[in-house]
Automatic annotation (TrEMBL):
PANTHER family: TRANS-ACONITATE 2-METHYLTRANSFERASE, TRANS-ACONITATE 2-METHYLTRANSFERASE-RELATED. Its EC number is 2.1.1.-. One of its GO terms (biological process) is methylation. One of its GO terms (molecular function) is methyltransferase activity. This is Class I SAM-dependent methyltransferase. It is an enzyme of class 2 (transferase). It comes from Streptomyces erythrochromogenes.
Amino acid sequence: MTLLRDEDLAAAFDHASHTYDALVAANPGYHAHLRRSVRRLGLPAHGEGLRVLDLGCGTGASTAAIRSVLPAAEITAVDASAGMLARAAAKPWGDGVRFVHAPAEFLTDAGVHGPFDAVFAAYLFRNLTDPEAVLATVHSVLGPGGRLAVHEYSLSGRRADRAVWTLVCRGIVQPAATLLGDGPLYRHLWRSVVDFDQADRFAARIRGAGFDKVRTLPLPGWQTGITHTFVATRTGASR
Ligand SMILES: C[S@@+](CC[C@H](N)C(=O)[O-])C[C@H]1O[C@@H](n2cnc3c(N)ncnc32)[C@H](O)[C@@H]1O
């Protein structure tokens, strides 16, 4: 199968938006792992006075993780899928959270301007046509000392980890998604991970975008060797 990209991917997420929360709820640790990755940003407790960008916020699972760890931070949450974003925006957030319908590639056009203190991107980067261009954009919207956390399926390179990923997708995720009418998106999910950078390569790309203090951290459970948090700091000037 070919990968879904850009408008085709946004349309597939629009279609899948009504079942997305139920599917991720069936994934043990999904929400706890997101919160762990937010904590790995290493920001001051509560996030008072901080601006955080949630890139590819989907139905708001990552936004909720940021809100939980940094309840006082001001959050801008962006997504290219109107359907996913509508689900997110319909949830009760209180003050300090705004949702913007835009591709990550065109933040400025959508009125999303830095400087941010942190950017969080969960399960976004392997979906992008040009991840390096978006890393450059993320670098430019972060202020000096700004932090990046990318929470992503990025395989370790061990054959056993790839085999577990294939087993989970073929045995559990794809049959469930096909029943729900979203087979193409979840076949894309398997392929997008297999085709994406392995963890060392993606960390190198983050360094190549001008970030410092790049670290690759594992997540627990069946996702060890499959999902990582990549944390980094923008110390240098804008490129
Ligand atoms: C797998 S979901 C993850 C959602 C959320 N971050 C979470 O943790 O549950 C990926 C999201 O990225 C969005 N996305 C994909 N490509 C995008 C792009 N180029 N710009 C903005 N959002 C994009 C999709 O619409 C989708 O909502």
